[in-house]
Amino acid sequence: xxxxxxxxxxxxxxxxxxxxxxxxxxxxxxxxxxxxxxxxxxxxxxxxxxxxxxxxxxxxxxxxxxxxxxxxxxxxxxxxxxxxxxxxxxxxxxxxxxxxxxxxxxxxxxxxxxxxxxxxxxxxxxxxxxxxxxxxxxxxxxxxxxxxxxxxxxxxxxxxxxxxxxxxxxxxxxxxxxxxxxxxxxxxxxxxxxxxxx
Length: 198
Known about the structure:
The protein has five helices and ten strands, in the order E-H-E-E-E-E-H-E-E-H-H-H-E-E-E. The chain is an alpha+beta fold and about 200 residues long. Strand 8 and strand 9 form a beta hairpin.
């Protein structure tokens, strides 16, 4: 589930919430899964991965990660991303382009403090995406953290990312591929609405 806080009243945000509610009503599983694509300038590579979108606060979409992970390195080298959700229960995908930045230490600490100790032990014990000898070593590191670490203190290498879209596209699948594509592009501080051909 995604938590909405004082959602921005402009059309693309309200349309996102409307589609979200429709998908919830249709029984959509994993509704918080969002694909984030980024570009790492240092190695000239594009990469994508799914993350769990936790909050939409006003116009900011927020998820959490290890700040030493490959995606963090990409965000540091190039702060523009593409984001995508697909909810098959209603055959809707929502594409976004956005700028991304870290959330504050204070925000990270408060969120971490309220999480379960099991989740926090994994965040502390995992050098995300780094090679390891075996899966049993992952479990051993996790169990050691669960027993020995301060599981309420957010480590400096972990926290949130927030992105603010400047482009939305709402794609709705229809029979005979006459798909509806409604887009919103931020231009000079104003959302411009347009329709795209299938």
